[in-house]
Amino acid sequence: MSTIPNEEVLPSEPSLIVENITKKYADNIVLDQLSLTINQGEIHGILGRNGIGKTTLIECMVGLRAFNEGAIKFGELDISQDREEIIKQVGIQPQEANLFPRLSVHETMQLFASFYGEPLAYNDIINDLDLESIKNKRIKSLSTGQKQRLLVALSLIGNPSFIILDEPTTGIDPQIRQLIWKVLRKVKTENYSILLSTHSMEEAEKICDRISILHNRKIVATGTPKEIINTYRKTLNDTLEDVFLILTGSSLRGEID
């Protein structure tokens, strides 16, 4: 990753403020007066059960989904008014992406680099994520792990100040997960801010500086993994997963779980 910033960068701390966001679908409230702050240069994990609203929150952050109340600001930039400028400075890796299936990995990186005024050297990103050996492979032929690495690479190509990753290591081998973690740690050292949605307690503990737990439409806990364990544990041996179950419940929810 380059240490040379864009000419226009997101203002300093905090990098992101989500203030009292409410999102409704008809009468169904998905997010209710939710607030969240992410500091510059941190990896911040969002944990929550399936269908709890993590992806909706991310979509609201980047202006893909309108919200009913509240405000979302990247520094001094407000997503409701400055979306075009924010999108230039935020890299996004969605859970799924409709890439061009006949393009190669290298061609896809070239295409996405062309969308930005000052992209990173995509060959460096290809090397960081070990995509060199498959750079001529077509998107339609990629394995799950290869595609996940490519999606992470595409989130970095625009030289963003803020990176949003929606479950980047779901369903992949431990070796690939470790490689992605290594890249994210490297990115963090260059003072980028990263928001990471994850179901993995191991991932949250190993690479996140702080985590927030989303439950019942709100953030119910925020802090370092150790702080959250110490605050909410019921026994001395409780793990982050134990505390997550304490905060979000252990019963299954019909068709959702």
Notes on the protein architecture:
The chain is an alpha/beta fold and 257 residues long. The protein has a single domain (2-256), classed as P-loop containing nucleotide triphosphate hydrolases (Rossmann fold, 3-Layer(aba) Sandwich), CATH 3.40.50. Helices cover 33% and strands 24% of the residues. The protein is built from nine helices and ten strands. It has helices at residues 54-61, 83-89, 105-113, 122-128, 144-156, 174-189, 201-207, 225-232, 240-248; strands at residues 16-25, 28-38, 43-48, 69-74, 77-78, 90-93, 162-166, 193-198, 210-215, 218-223. The strands form two sheets. A six-stranded mixed sheet has the order 6-7-8-3-9-10, sandwiched between helices. It has a four-stranded antiparallel sheet with strand order 2-1-4-5, covered by helices on one side. Helix 6 links the parallel strand 7 (162-166) and strand 8 (193-198). Helix 8 crosses helix 9 (240-248). The longest helix is centred in the last third of the chain and has 16 residues, at 174-189. The protein starts with 15 loop residues before the first strand and ends in a 9-residue tail after the last helix. 37% of the residues are buried. Residues 1-12 have low confidence and may be disordered.
